[in-house]
Amino acid sequence: MRELLEKYWNCETSPEEEQKLREWFAGNDVPEDLQKYRSNFLALNNFQKIEAPASVSRKVLAHLPSIRIYPVLKIAASILVILSIGTGVYTHYQQEEFLKEVFSETYSDPQDAIKETQAVLGKVSSSLLKVEELQEDQIEQEKDLTEQESDSVEQENNSVEQEENIKLEELIIEEE
């Protein structure tokens, strides 16, 4: 019985073996060291399996909502597949439209392509010339400002120098 009890504690017993343990603990020949487990097994004997009458079971089951999960999952999976295919087709269509738009301006006559290229390059060239002219104008303006600043600094230095000369002359006159 000790081996069977050890199997019970390791959760390795069958329902029949558990019943044998309950019956053995219900008897009077339980050793002193195992008496502490007796109340547990006696409590298990006192529990009885209660079953509702069939009519009550049917009534309760009739009021419960009947949800079958697999059909719902099948429908959800189908919707997901349809949406995925639709998204793929839509994306492919949008990509084709974009590529058509990008490559729609092609020329069958090489001369037309050359003329168009020359026209575009002429516009680019004129834009670059305008930028160059604007940069030159900006450089000239900066030079003018620098010259004006240096002229004003020079004038200021001259005026300070003149004032100093006047003061020196006044001092000389005063000393005489």
What does this protein structure show overall?
The protein is mainly alpha-helical. The chain is built from six helices and no strands. The chain folds into three domains: 46 residues, no CATH class; 31 residues; 69 residues. The model has no long low-confidence stretch (mean pLDDT 83).
Characterize the biggest β-sheet: none
Ends apart, CA distance between termini: 142 Å
User: Over all CA atoms, what is the radius of gyration?
Assistant: 53 Å
Q: Which percent band covers the strand fraction? A: under 5%
* Secondary structural class: mainly alpha
Q: How many alpha or pi helices?
A: 6
Instruction: Please tally the β strands and state the result.
Output: 0
Residue ranges: pLDDT <50 for 5 or more in a row? none
Order of helices and strands: HHHHHH
Structural domain tally: 3
Mean pLDDT rating: 83
> Which percent range fits the helix content?
over 70%
Quick one: overall form? elongated
Q: What's this, in brief?
A:
With 176 residues, the protein is mostly helical. 81% of the residues lie in helices and 0% in strands.
Top keywords for this entry?
single chain; 176 residues; mainly alpha; elongated
Give the topology.
Elements: H1 2-9, H2 15-26, H3 35-46, H4 54-63, H5 69-103, H6 110-175
Helix pairs in contact: 2-3
